[in-house]
Amino acid sequence: MTAEAAGNLQGERLEQESMILDSVERWLERDVRPKVMELEHGDIYPTEIVEQMKEMGLFGAIIDETYGGLGLRPSVYAKIIERISSVWMSLSGIINSHLIMSFIVQRMGTEQQRRTFLPRFATGELRGGLALTEPDCGTDLQAIRTVARRDGDRYVVNGTKTWISNGIQGSCFALLVKTDLKAEPRHKGMSMLLAEKGEGFKVSRKLEKLGYKGIDSAELIFEDYEVPADRLIGGVEGQGLANAISGLELGRVNIAARAVGVAQAALDESVKYSQQRSTFGKPIHQHQAIALKLADMATRVAAARLLTERAADVLDRGERCDFEAGMAKLFASEAGVENALEAMRIHGGYGYSKEFVVERLYRDAPLLCIGEGTNEIQRLVIAKRLIERSPI
Which of 18, 20, 26, 110 reaches 20 to 30 Å from 161, CA-CA? Predict the structure, then answer.
């Protein structure tokens, strides 16, 4: 391919990506923003909006065009997530958990698994997410107790998963299990299955949350649940933790992008309010105490966005990005929390009112410091990789 042809292809791709981003922004303003307050306060699953997301192809955002997806680069997907989260963060969770599962199948699955599942994931016919966490196991995934025992051409699964996004409305999950209880180290006994709902797969209950309303978080129970052996992702036992880590790289970039969206929304609301609200005869943005807060908020947003873009660029190239994704997730999520709190302070009593957006941002933001690995874990990952990159 000539340099001119390559340049033309690059230009066409950028134009297409720009059109998709513009389309998402118009959809958010037209069909989402007017409904957010009612749906969020009622903790109502946004069925109509989800159908629109299916029509737009968002459930196949990063799935290769070969399998019916949009084939977007992770960096473009991150921009979509930022925009969605600036309007309503919960919507980003509906597609993120689903796309982590899709990402794992696309990157780690067999070709037969790709052909069988990815087209159905891309249309949203099959929706779901990642089932890792258990009642006695969060960060330490090697401590999971859900067991899958091989029985001929199937696995029989028993165990419980909790805090599973899309657990009620979803229909298929990338399920982390133990296939060898005696393996050492423990991760060599872990595998991942594609588990569609069926007999023996029960949704125990919807878990109530401080924020992140609308999207369902549930407890899943498996009692002699049978999975065909050809649903073992990658076709080889012992790769479960590697599969999970691969998916979480995308998940952490997603969390960082969500946090940028929340931080930006907090800033936007604060800038607007500071020009509308007056005290002591002048708009409050003219008071130094408020001006300093606005400056810090804007700086945090810009820094968080740059870190997120850097991590997404590494993921675009197909390279290991736990170092970059960890830093983006850590900084951006803390920026989201700080900006949400500052927005509440700038709004004063109105910031504590359910009639204003900042109250929701304040409840949503803390999740970002916990989801896809706590920020404490991110610090450990960053430090470990830093030492690996800087041998003496």
Answer: 110
